[in-house]
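Treating backbone geometry as a discrete language has practical consequences that deserve illustration. Part of our work consisted of pairing the sequence of a single chain with a tokenised description of its backbone. We regard such an encoding as a compact summary of how the chain folds. The amino acid sequence and the backbone structure tokens for this protein are reproduced below.
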Amino acid sequence: MQTAVGFIGLGVMGTPMALNLTRAGTPLVAWSRSHGSDDALRDAGARVAENVDDVFASCRTVILMLANDAAIDAALARGSPGFAARVGGHTIVNMGTNAPEYSRALADEIAAASGRYVEAPVSGSRKPAEAGQLVVMLAGAPEDVDAVRALVKPLCRDSFVCGDVPSALTMKLAVNLFLITMVTGLTEATHFAQRHGIDLARFADVLNAGPMASDVSRVKLGKLVAEDFSVQAAITDVLKNARLVAESARSIGIASPLLDICHALYGETERAGHGAADMVAVIRAIEQRTGDAR
């Protein structure tokens, strides 16, 4: 009989990921502070835990898909006597996005408490998560990585072993740098076309037929043409990722000029009240700058 796996964090990404694991036959024990996805998980066959301690009591492997450092620290009771009880004898799989330095320190503390730790951040937003088409990057001890790689197979199109912690998160930040600058460039090009009176549907046809088109650009361009800002990757989350990339760049003394411009634009978009919208809502900040330039 397969051992139960814990899953903590059922947000925009975590819910479809947990559902895909359950549908693939993984016995899952899930928990989230919001409880918004409890019924969907139960209907799929997962057990919804009464509390976070129930997850650790029931499962030796616990996946975390949490928004930030504070949420992870709270789930693990980090900094309290309960930390060793939660992580000792467990494999903690961190599938969220954090600073590499944070992850390295967490790995050391978990090891000191006789636990195991694997980084497994993902590339992809809500739609790939729903389709089980994420890309997973893995770092940690080889035997732990091998076990987690097999576990997360229902979630991903492919997975890659990156080495020791925090190499998977560093890889994720490099991927995110490209994603953020690419989508922001696409958004600025759409704004340029629109303000020049170009038909945006025809603009999309031209771009989608050309060599620069990608799965991401097609989806994001469709959202821009339709002014559909329903969330796949939220402005607030992209802003967090931009900050992490910028901080990581500064930590080793390298420039990130394109990222820095994007970082500022996503900050302006969030301050304008669009933090919960999809990242293509960054067009609102570009529109504001156009208005200020007139």
